[in-house]
Amino acid sequence: MIRVLLADDQLLVRAGFRALLDAQPDIEVAGEAADGEEAVRLVRELRPDTVLMDIRMPRLDGLAATRAITGDFELSGVKVVMLTTFELDEYVFEAIRSGASGFLVKDTEPEELLRAVRAVVGGDALLSPGVTRRLIAEFAARSKEPAAASGLSELTEREREVMALVGIGLSNEEIARRLVVSPLTAKTHVSRTMVKLGARDRAQLVVLAYESGLVRPGWLG
Predict the structure, then answer these.
(1) How many angstroms from the chain centroid is the CA of residue 35?
(2) DSSP string, 4-54
(3) pLDDT tens per residue, range 121-138
């Protein structure tokens, strides 16, 4: 059973998500929070598998709440998905850098929301359907200038290659086709790279690819 915490200051939004999630045989809503402080407290108390976290909330916003959760070693198993009203929200890339596993717009189709919850719990990065790979590059371009490639010395050449492909938004299946290997082999390379770099999930690996300079904005074809 996948346990989800809802964090949004709008009661109607929470009610809508709860009705959808609780209707699934493999998902249950573990609790609800109306602000960031309550969200952090409930995550520590309830230990859900994932949190659907609104970016803009009173007392403590979603970014700060996410940093508090992802920065706590005891909560390392909790995945955070940011909720935003607009796909081009200026905080989206910062949210992923803060440790979020991805983000969704609030008007996401029900089927996509369910797929998203299951995907992040399974360790996949998550972007709303309308958010393209170029959007990741756009936010990366607005972020700080990447430092010279560092922290990558432990990676093999193949792992660096795989990390770069993850950085431009390719899935395991697409990486497998690009490198002419099996999807399982591609997944293994991605997993080993994450372990070596201490990345929480695939989304953080994307951020590290940009911030290390391994991938730079404008490289997408």
Answers:
(1) 20
(2) EEEE-S-HHHHHHHHHHHHTSTTEEEEEEESSHHHHHHHHHHH--SEEEEE
(3) 877 666 544 444 555 556
